[in-house]
Design a protein that fits this description.
This protein has 226 residues and is of the alpha/beta class. It contains nine helices and eight strands. The protein has an eight-stranded parallel beta sheet with strand order 7-6-5-4-3-2-1-8. The longest helix has 18 residues, at 103-120.
Length: 226
């Protein structure tokens, strides 16, 4: 498996990053030909300018990192990002509603964004924050995402609790059963872990941009965290 870079959604999301730091991170990802850079909304134009003509797409986060915005605000966010020409959107589900068992509200929240993305062919990934959910909630939320029209289900933001765990990813893959793709995210910092999730069936991996070079070079990134 020598195409690891084409599975990577490289996260350039730390809130304290300066514009120069974000630009340097995006350039590094473009050089590695990662599938996408996943950026803060304020960096959409910057990412588009640096990714233009490259193999790297521009993904933006929505409702990040807690997912507790008004559903109407999420839908409006999606429309604005689509109008700006982003390729993909990673939205955070309202996992407080998931914990409350308010599945109708959860589905409507996701469907409002999916209505925008489906109309334009924009890829939609829904972030669960699996560290705060039990296995029954993860399975149910996977089904809800599929019904609502999501293209991918994704484990984590990388900013709130543990990242991708094998048992959770396996459950998401089994439940989705090909009806949606699965994106493990958070804590993937070496080539071996990346390969393992891909071999399980993951279609994309969310990784911190600073780990991309090590993963692509068949190594392991130093430090901890996203």
């Amino acid at each position: 498996m020598n195409q690891l870079h084409r599975y990577l959604d490289a996260a350039v999301l730390k809130p304290e990053m300066t514009q120069d730091e974000a630009a340097a991170a995006i350039r590094a990802c473009v050089e590695l030909k990662t599938f996408s850079v996943c950026v803060r909304p304020c960096d959409i134009a910057l990412a588009q300018s640096l990714c233009q003509g490259s193999q790297t797409k521009v993904c933006v986060v929505l409702g990040f990192p807690h997912g507790d915005q008004l559903s109407a605000s999420k839908s409006d966010e999606a429309a604005r990002y689509i109008n700006l020409g982003v390729d993909e959107i990673d939205m955070v589900a309202n996992y407080g509603w998931v914990k409350s068992g308010d599945w109708e509200a959860v589905q409507a929240d996701i469907a409002g964004v999916a209505a925008q993305t489906k109309a334009t062919g924009t890829v939609l990934k829904v972030i669960f924050e699996t560290a705060h959910l039990n296995l029954d909630e993860i399975a149910k939320l996977t089904e809800i995402c599929i019904k609502a029209g999501a293209d991918y289900v994704k484990t984590s933001t990388g900013f709130n609790g543990e990242g991708a765990q094998e048992s959770q990813v396996q459950l998401m893959l089994k439940t989705a059963d090909g009806r949606a793709q699965v994106k493990p995210s958070g804590g993937i910092r070496d080539a071996a872990s990346a390969r393992h999730f891909i071999e399980m069936g993951a279609a994309r991996l969310g990784v911190g941009w600073s780990s991309c070079a090590a993963i692509c070079g068949d190594g392991k990134a130093a430090g901890s965290g996203y």
